[in-house]
Amino acid sequence: MGPDHPQKEVYYESKHGIAFLAFKDKLNMDSSKWIVGEDYSAAPTCATCHMSAVAGRPGTDEEPPIRALPVTHDVGMRISWNNRPAISVRPEDSDRKMGLPGADVDWRTRRANMKSVCLNCHESQWVDNFYVQYDSLIELYHRKFAKPGLELYDLAKPLMRPVNFANKLDFIWFELWHHEGRRARHGASMMGPDYTHWHGTYEIAMHFYIKFVPELEHLIEKGKTSGDPQKIAAAEALAAKLDEVLNSEDHRWYLGRMDPAEQERRKQAAEEFRKRYEK
Questions:
Q1: Reduced 3-state DSSP string for 21-59
Q2: 144-199: per-residue pLDDT in tens?
Q3: Position 1 in a domain
Q4: Which of 10, 162, 206, 224 is the most buried (most CB within 10 A)?
Q5: Residue 235 lies in a domain
């Protein structure tokens, strides 16, 4: 629970959590063997996906084989992104940083482990499509907000008080990646649409444009008029980077510079949406 890691809330709004609440009396919760598809066939719990045993099976012409997996208490062995940092990293990299044995198990192996769990209930195209969607959300978050946001935040540091969280920008950036950024990524990883969008990407975008960018502009103006040559130089460097970011394809709409063809495409999509739901 919590604003930065609401896995419990995401689970209960996902189809997995809804199915669990509807069918939990049909699950073999007292079984000691904990096998996906046998003890957990009506719905998955958190333990189903991250800890339960998997009975292997050979492949067919239509479906790939499923690898057998034992019960595990290392819940990181089936995840392919570590979404704790501002910029998501592969789990073996974070394990290596912390000196954990998982450093020797790459993300592809971990993803294959999770797919073996998924394939007990879903066919392979569905599973592959989920990972396309999940990876796309991570890539979008990185490209549009996390990577440029981190660069801008670092360039702004010479213009701020040197004590962490003694500045307005410290709190804005922290909540962008640590609260909203995590919620979007955790929501996508567990198929919780409200947490992916309304508690995630929507709030990231809103606070990026109405809080983060205006505070950067305030620091730039303050630095340029400070009379301090070092702060003036820092302000000019930050202004140049901000101009580069806002003029990129992801953000130029904010400056009223969206590509006319893209603007027309969005207008048509909005009109079609209104027609579909106007009655």
A1: HHHHHHCCCCCCCCEECCCECCCCCHHHHHCCEECCECC
A2: 999 999 999 999 999 999 999 999 999 999 999 999 999 999 999 999 999 999 99
A3: no
A4: 10
A5: yes
Total domains present in the chain: 2
Q: Is residue 144 part of a domain?
A: yes
Residue type at position 145: F
Q: What residues contact 35, with CB distance under 8 A and at least 6 apart? A: 52, 53, 54, 55
Residue 154 domain-assigned (yes or no) = yes
Give the end-to-end CA distance of the chain in Å, rounded to a whole number. Answer: 39
**Entry pTM:** 0.93
State both tokens at 228: 């301090």
User: Does residue 199 sit in the same domain as residue 233?
Assistant: yes
Q: Are residues 147 and 260 in the same domain?
A: yes
Contact present, 201 and 141 (Cβ < 8 Å): yes
Provide, for the chain, the percentages of residues in helix, strand and coil under a 3-state DSSP scheme, each rounded to the nearest 5: 65, 5, 30
